[in-house]
Amino acid sequence: MNATNLKLRSRDWFGKDDRWGVAHRAWLRAEGFSERVFQGKPVIGICNSWSELNNCNAHLRQVAEAVKRGVWEAGGFPLEFCTISLGEMLMKPTTMLYRNLMAMDVEECIRAYPLDGVVLLCGCDKTTPAQLMGAASANVPAIMVPGGPMLRGMWHGKELGSGTDLRRFWEEVRAGRLSDEEFCEMESCVSRSAGHCTVMGTASTMAAVAEALGMTLPGAADIPAPDSRRLSIAEQSGGRIAKMVAEDLRPSQILTPAAFENAICLLMALGGSTNAIIHLVAIAGRVGLDLPLAKFEEISRTTPVLANVKPSGKYLMEDFSYAGGVPAVLKEIASQLRLEAATVTGKTLGENISRAACFNREVIKPFDQPLYPEGGLVVLGGNLAPYGAVIKQSATSPHLLQHKGKAVVFENNRDLLARIDDPHLDADENSILVLKNAGPKGAPGMPEWGHLPIPAKLLKSGVKDMVRLSDARISGTSFGTIVVHISPEAAVGGALAIVKDGDEIELDVREKRLELLVPEAEIKARLAQWGPPAPHYSRGYGKVYLDHILQAHQGCDFDFLLGRDGEGTTSSLLEFPNPSL
Predict the structure, then answer these.
(1) Is residue 494 domain-resident?
(2) For the chain, how many structural domains are there in total?
(3) Is 377 within 8 Å of 395 (Cβ atoms)?
(4) How far apart are CA 573 and CA 436, in angstroms?
(5) What is the mean pLDDT of each run of 10 residues along the chain (581 residues)?
(6) Distance of CA 246 to the CA centre of its chain
(7) Do 555 and 447 sit in the same domain of this protein?
(8) Would you state the torsion angle of the CA atoms of residues 389, 393, 399, 404, taken in this order, to the nearest 10 degrees?
């Protein structure tokens, strides 16, 4: 490419003949680069979230090498750098506590270093939104390369989906129907390679959402991690980012209202993770857009679930990829999309998917023969969730979609773990399990504690699902009639804070309501007597987090990070009539 006439950021570092220009070039030449790399080549940062503490991203060093090939071939100068890596399995109390920290790491590295463009290498759940948030704020040309899902697990001739089937079989162990030896056998079979979870969990969902937002090359979201095509598309992405720099194509031109509508449509058609709502709201906030929960509800009503993938369906991400993947689903829901939306290819989303095709109708259903007639996620209102709550209706039990029951309350996760398997726990199959103080401030960090275990005594009697409520999150691999993201959370005085054992609660998914059936005067009296819990941190990042974290319906970003380039206000994406959401 001809980059000699570009206004490159990197020229402020490398293009001067003063003392600092010499020093900048000399220090890079110490790494073995010749003077040729400074002759007008755009500097492309490869933002790598590789870590041996994060299996989902453990292969990204190899992916980075493929990106470099593409950058060099296109006339760019690739320089790889690492940020913190958020590995869902090993990081405690939750990666969500650190998503904003990683986003700041990404943003500040892009700002501080001589980068003309950046390739974002992601994988595990929070690495994808964190990189998109940081790149959106920095607003330097950027393209994303997801790491892809791991290979399917196999055990006793059965396919295993990481996360979803692990949860399912653990319940069988607790119920006494699966031996410890069998569970131990399964441990060595469920995760067979590097890459993220093999189901439509948060990692798969967010990779797909990134593609719908226009931030990846078509087809990049779902190619399995060990597949050679993963390296091929990484190389193509390296070549494309060099051209994006020449075109001055930035995230602010791609992350538009149309792009977010497309991402929500795909989220609903996939039966994707509840976590994607929080992350999309946060990403939108970084480009100055307000993305209210009402918009998710509006799109959910008109977008059917087409992806027959666990936990909402039957198949795994490998099957989904072979069936045509994200481009095939986007083509199927094209009538719902803003096809004029810009993408990193330099073409519109409509142009990107014009030749997409489905190769397996069992895995990706036709639009007029959906797996479910409405989107996978439903936003609830009501006096227990005045600012909203979320349920994945595509993974629930139909008989519990309208349900009244008496609350069995756990004040925090420690209380839950201590009492859930107590044979004397006053709970039956009609009870509603309630977990408090598991939200952004209360936990802290809003961990994936919302998949409350069914009490062991009920599992043994054959109960397979119950209504469960919390201000926590759930893994995208979870299943069951589980309401999460209740906002405001208990720790800031939301109505959830004053629920007591025996209170009657009504869940009505069809009417989008979650109600505490207690007189309003009694609710007010209880709230008047309520006091906030002691803060979890008094110093360091934890204190910054507690002082500045927003609630779930606001995306759980920090209040001082909204807007781009220090702009702290947001503009409305659209006007919505439902103030309860």
Answers:
(1) yes
(2) 4
(3) no
(4) 32
(5) 67 94 96 94 98 96 98 98 96 96 98 98 97 98 97 86 81 87 85 92 97 98 97 98 97 98 98 97 97 96 96 94 98 98 98 98 98 96 97 95 98 97 96 98 96 94 96 92 98 98 97 97 97 95 98 98 59 34 36
(6) 31
(7) no
(8) 0
